[in-house]
Design goal:
Number of helices of chain A: 9
CATH class of the largest domain in chain B: Alpha Beta
CATH class of chain A: Alpha Beta
Radius of gyration of chain A: 18 Å
Strand content of chain B: 25-35%
Helix content of chain B: 25-40%
Number of strands of chain B: 21
CATH superfamily of chain A: NAD(P)-binding Rossmann-like Domain
Number of helices of chain B: 13
Number of domains of chain B: 3
Oligomer: heterodimer
CATH architecture of the largest domain in chain B: 3-Layer(aba) Sandwich
Number of domains of chain A: 1
Strand content of chain A: 15-25%
Radius of gyration of chain B: 21 Å
Structural class of chain B: alpha+beta
Chain lengths: ~240, ~425
């Protein structure tokens, strides 16, 4: 049985990971903003087989509360084996372009709050020399694109931060897993037009759980995104700037 | 949370444009429903025709949480958008099973109630709705009621089998049945004509599960030859289930693939391959949901889709009438290989529930002008024989047929009126059938 802290537990990918963990009898501590929503998920996970489910509802942008969040999780789970950080919002790019405030708010939610949590968690795990930290980043962080570079740059920060953290914590037996999902059909992306590249959150969750089990470093999910992003990263800027996507 | 998209039922016929609303919680579901003039809840889209089609559909795919499961009593409460497959994954390892299950596990709990689905044990257990202890429903007035056979019984009996037209089912509590094993001991009986098949159902009416594959192309003496599969829950063998899907049909098959020659060849091969009086132990998933192993099998019918015809004929003169119907079908040469015959037990109190005592026949026709003509002809025959058609399978029934064969439709409308459903909840099918 693993003891797992899930931050952003109402996100679709996190919820499906939690269902897999519940089915194998793990103990879960769920953190999310919406109290009512997280309670619904908690009852569900108990029926699905979780050995224990506890919840904590708070706004993750309230970074002063992060230390306390981890203390509460430690108490609830009696030490944490795995942390999954999955919260985030899909920025409205157009709105951001006209508003500094909006842009910084998105970067706050998608990058700063994650980095705050990572800093605190990594020190705890480093001291006790074990644990796995998994962060949901995005393919959008691989290269800024006109259609969503605010979200993308926040995710780029998360990807770079976890890359460095992985190196630092390697010798302390702490694994840092960075997940880069492609298009996933979730409530967050409900307003986007769907095509063949879209994956189900339940399938992405299987990949996340597998990556954590195997302590992978970086994982594109579904894996074909590795190829797509390799090509996108290789496009020379002289051409890239003329494209719009 | 709103998209415009093309929607269709499992038969992929008919298709229409619709606004898809996808609330992420019960709170947002209530809000979304309130904002629309007329809506219809839609789960997995597994009803065959247009009964889950509407201009505004409210998808329940995120309303899919378990609420409570008492492993001691087998009482299960869950949100309406959860699928029977997800329920099975949780209950079977604990020694419980669905009291009634349709032939696919890819339907939602809410859908199973709204269609008042039946299974291979109808002659013993009745329909799904008869095992619902209570449910919560969002009314057209915005009110959420908890209803049961004791509380708001009129609304309850209109909602079970009510095709989503009384309100939006949000959650339900059902009573499961205990099992000792996830295996089924199956017995196969061959019947070389329709009369022998009906007799076999009669003489095996104590079997818990019974269903027959029927050859709709054979003629004359062997008209209606059938392979009857009886089943009982095994007493031992563990409680594991494997719900992983094996294969999937990746795209719509060229529609010439299924023609009267290939189907005839399949039917003949299936008949000769089956062994009389064969006893086997099979897994629960493969016994109840053989077609679930092939993802999106509906694509086999090509991009134009198919129409399904399912009727029930009253027991009196049932065998003779079934022969008439089968003669018509086999003469048309259009019936498919997926034809099913079953004996139904008595009907229940639910106003629009399909099953009545007698024999039911279900088969697919590849969608075409000729196929629809045949289905209409069969419809007329069924009306004359005092039978009726299953709303969940229907895509073409006429208003007059519906009103003549579901005589409680007026009572159904009264209940809808009383609970504010008129005008608020409607489907493409309900409009075709003349419901307000």
């Amino acid at each position: 049985m693993k003891r797992i802290l899930i931050i952003g537990a109402t996100s679709a990918i996190a919820e499906h990971c939690a269902r897999i963990w519940a089915a194998r009898g793990d103990a879960l501590h769920l953190v999310a903003r919406n109290e009512q929503h997280v309670q619904v998920i908690a009852s569900d996970l108990k029926v699905r087989g979780a050995s224990a489910v506890t919840t904590n509802s708070l706004d993750l942008n309230d970074m002063d509360k992060h230390e306390e969040l981890l203390n509460v999780a430690d108490d609830a789970l009696d030490s944490v084996d795995i942390v999954l950080i999955a919260h985030g919002t899909l920025s409205n790019q157009k709105k951001c372009e006209f508003s500094v405030e909006e842009t910084l708010k998105e970067i706050q939610t998608n990058a700063f709050s994650t980095i705050s949590l990572l800093t605190l968690i990594s020190n705890r795990f480093e001291a006790r020399k074990n644990g796995t930290i998994c962060v949901i980043s995005s393919v959008a962080g691989d290269r800024g694109r006109a259609s969503n570079y605010v979200y993308g740059s926040a995710k780029a920060m998360v990807t770079a931060f976890t890359s460095g953290l992985r190196q630092r914590l390697h010798k302390s037996n702490v694994a840092v897993v960075t997940i880069k999902p492609g298009f996933v059909d979730t409530p967050m992306t409900s307003e986007l037009k769907k095509g063949v590249l879209w994956a189900k959150p339940s399938d992405v969750a299987k990949g996340v759980v597998r990556a954590i089990n195997k302590k992978r470093s970086e994982r594109y999910l579904p894996s074909f995104w590795w190829l797509i992003m390799m090509v996108i990263k290789k496009i020379p800027n002289s051409i890239f700037k003329k494209l719009f996507f | 949370m709103t998209n415009l998209a093309k929607i269709y039922g499992w038969g992929r016929y008919p298709q229409q444009d619709a606004y898809l609303h996808t609330p992420t919680s019960c709170v947002s579901l209530e809000l979304t429903a309130k904002q629309q003039n007329s809506v219809l809840a839609r789960g997995m889209g597994r009803s065959y025709g247009d009964s889950a089609n509407a201009l505004n559909v409210l998808q329940t795919k995120y309303i899919n949480h378990f609420i409570e499961f008492d492993k001691a009593t087998g009482k299960l409460t869950a949100e309406a958008g959860i699928t029977l497959r997800e329920i099975l994954e949780v209950i079977v390892p604990s020694g419980w099973f669905l009291p009634v299950t349709p032939g696919t596990s890819y339907v939602t709990l809410g859908g199973a109630i709204a269609s008042d689905v039946h299974g291979k044990n109808h002659h013993i257990a009745g329909t799904f709705g008869q095992h619902v202890m209570s449910l919560t429903i969002l009314l057209g007035t915005g009110e959420v009621l908890s209803i049961s056979p004791q509380n708001y019984a009129d609304l309850f009996h209109a909602t079970c089998g009510g095709m989503g037209l009384t309100g939006i089912i949000m959650s339900a509590t059902i009573q499961l049945i205990p099992i000792r094993s996830s295996l089924i001991s199956q017995k196969t009986i061959k019947a070389d004509c329709i009369e022998a098949a009906c007799e076999a159902f009669e003489s095996n009416s104590d079997a818990t599960y019974s269903v027959a594959w029927i050859d709709c192309l054979s003629k004359g003496k062997s008209l209606g030859r059938s392979v009857i599969m009886l089943g009982e829950h095994a007493e031992q063998g563990g409680l594991e289930i494997d719900t992983r899907q094996k294969v999937s049909v990746p795209f719509s098959a060229p529609s010439v693939l299924l023609n009267s020659l290939t189907i005839k060849a399949f039917n003949t091969a299936y008949w000769h391959k089956s062994k009389h009086n064969l006893n086997q132990i099979v897994g629960l998933i493969s016994y109840f949901y053989p077609l679930d192993a092939v993802g999106e099998w509906n694509r086999l019918y090509g991009k134009n889709g198919f129409v399904q015809f399912q009727c029930v004929l009253p027991k009196i003169d049932g065998v003779a009438n079934m022969r008439k119907l089968l003669t018509e079908i086999s003469n048309s040469g259009k019936g498919s290989f997926l034809a099913v015959l079953k004996q139904f037990g008595t009907c229940n109190k639910n106003l629009l529930s399909f099953p009545t005592e007698g024999y039911t026949l279900a088969l697919d026709f590849k969608a075409s002008v000729t196929a629809i003509k045949i289905v209409k002809k069969l419809e007329d025959m069924v009306v004359d024989m005092g039978g009726r058609l299953y709303l969940t399978k229907d895509a073409v029934m006429q208003e007059s047929t519906f009103k003549a064969t579901y005589p409680t439709w007026e009572k159904f409308e009264e209940v809808r009126e009383q609970y504010g459903a008129i005008g608020k909840f409607s489907s493409t099918q309900s409009k075709r059938l003349g419901l307000a």
